[in-house]
Known about the structure:
CATH superfamily of the largest domain: Regulatory protein AraC
Helix content: 40-55%
Oligomer: single chain
Number of strands: 10
Structural class: alpha+beta
CATH topology of the largest domain: Jelly Rolls
Distance between the termini: 45 Å
Amino acid sequence: MPAFVSRQVVAADRYFLDLRPAADEPLAVVCGGMEQVRADYVVAREDFPYCCVEFVAAGRGTVSLRGREFPLAPGSVFAYGPVVPHVIRTDRRRRLRKYYVDFVGREAPARLRGARLALGGHLTVGRPREIEEVFKLLQQCGRAHSRHSHLLCGQLLGVLLTKIAERALPPDGGEAQAFATYEQFREFLAAERQRLLSVEQAAREFDISSAYACRLFRRFDTISPYQYLLRQRMNLAADLLTHDRLLVKQVAAHLGFADQYQFSRTFKRVSGISPGRLLGR
């Protein structure tokens, strides 16, 4: 494994295309991947052989780029490369899960500027799951090691940079504050999914209106807060059924459904299968 790849991870999914790319290519992916970092994760470099864009999908941390420190949270994107000193740290309690892509090419500096992300830059994107989906496609094509992988990854890198430009939020102002509220409300829905029965209840407890919650999700997500909460509740239900071995009626009661039949109908609508099918009955 190349020396620049961090070993301070608990899980990683990486691909390597060409660690010695031709200097005259317009834009070429070298390698990339996903890392779930350890609690002691710290990467400190004075230099780096390629251009790199990193995207935070989960967790918290900080990044220092040319001596300027920025907070890292879901939706954070930053870039570094040759002669850009950088230090990346994770929050020990909320460890980073992040994606990265390393690349070269004579068009790389201009493409990064077009993405509002020159080397040493940092920004936040709205609808971060759209960015994550492009990174996942990059991984899929990179791991395939087919005769088309090099070309496909180069094209997807272009898509990624364009998508970052599309979703980049202003560094200061109302849009960035709205995105922070959206992220905090989304985390609240996930953390309190067992007892929250409606978006109205959640918004009231979070001290925003349900209408504003819906506007935030329309702006920064692809689903409504109701759909997100329902998915979170059904994910919890699946865990209770398969891991905790609770009965269907027990799960229904735990999640506040009127009865097991209402719960089963909801579970099937969201998950595509009934609780019984999930359990192989």
